[in-house]
């Protein structure tokens, strides 16, 4: 029976399940088929786990590993609903069914060409495709300048800290600024992402003052991934600041 319907299925075996932070787990899988499986940074696939009742229906996850990690792949799952809470019932050796890689958020971008400066906006688990992209860029010695702005509730919602630390050490022109909205002890940004904050933080990171920064310059791309309300809010803020649609790329969290 093809559980994924019309989608091509690929069987994978769970190699490890590691708790990353709070309710977040990293699942590493290896293929149980001979055909080469490829994906581009920023892509994902539909997964289901036939062993666990309730996990038969496929759910989309962005890969959090770089394509160079193949044939092993990695996805990161946060327990936010009944489906994702049931992931805790999985064990090493269990089988996953996975569709072919899909999504064109960032996959076809040549990072050495048109856009040299990037601002990534992640809302919650919207960080996942950016983890894959940044890992890929770190492995390819990219000289892109990238500012990652991550909105989350509290420090427990910040995961892949070791991965991001290693990326920071490899990429000299990368920085991450978390905005934590429900963490009173946090010493960094505590508010929602706002126009006033962005007018200061973005030019400052790229070495400009606000008056000399070109918000709609062709060398800068603004990429957004998160819940629909988050993506719409950030897109509207950027447009008010003068960024045109051609420089804004929006992905969405899928279910």
From TrEMBL:
Which protein is depicted? FAD-dependent oxidoreductase
Domain named FAD-binding FR-type: which ranges? Answer: 7-108
Report whether Acyltransferase shows up as a keyword of the record: no
Native species: Candidatus Gallitreponema excrementavium
Question: Which segments does the entry list as coiled coil?
Answer: none
What's the short name of a Pfam family annotated to this entry?
Answer: NAD_binding_1
Transmembrane parts of this sequence: 118-139
Could you cite one Gene Ontology molecular function of this protein?
Answer: metal ion binding
């Amino acid at each position: 029976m093809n559980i994924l319907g019309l989608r091509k299925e690929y069987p994978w075996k769970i190699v490890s399940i590691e708790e990353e932070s709070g309710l977040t787990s990293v699942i590493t899988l290896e293929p149980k088929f001979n055909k080469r499986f490829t994906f581009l940074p920023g892509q994902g696939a539909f997964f289901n786990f036939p062993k666990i009742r309730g996990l038969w229906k496929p759910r989309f996850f962005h890969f959090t590993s770089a394509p160079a990690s193949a044939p092993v792949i990695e996805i990161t799952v946060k327990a936010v609903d009944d489906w994702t809470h049931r992931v805790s019932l999985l064990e090493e050796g269990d089988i996953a069914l996975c569709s072919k890689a899909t999504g064109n958020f960032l996959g076809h971008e040549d990072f050495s060409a048109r856009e040299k400066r990037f601002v990534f906006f992640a809302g919650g688990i919207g960080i996942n495709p950016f983890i894959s992209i940044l890992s890929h860029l770190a492995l390819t010695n990219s000289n892109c300048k990238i500012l990652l702005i991550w909105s989350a509730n509290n420090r427990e919602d910040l995961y892949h800290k070791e991965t991001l630390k290693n990326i920071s050490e490899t990429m000299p022109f990368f920085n991450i600024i978390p905005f934590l909205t429900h963490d009173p002890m946090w010493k960094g940004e505590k508010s929602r992402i706002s126009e006033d904050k962005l007018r200061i933080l973005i030019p400052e990171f790229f070495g400009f003052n606000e008056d000399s920064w070109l918000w709609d310059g062709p060398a800068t791309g603004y990429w957004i991934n998160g819940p629909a309300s988050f993506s719409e809010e950030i897109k509207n803020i950027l447009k008010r600041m003068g960024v045109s649609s051609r420089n804004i790329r929006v992905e969405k969290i899928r279910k």
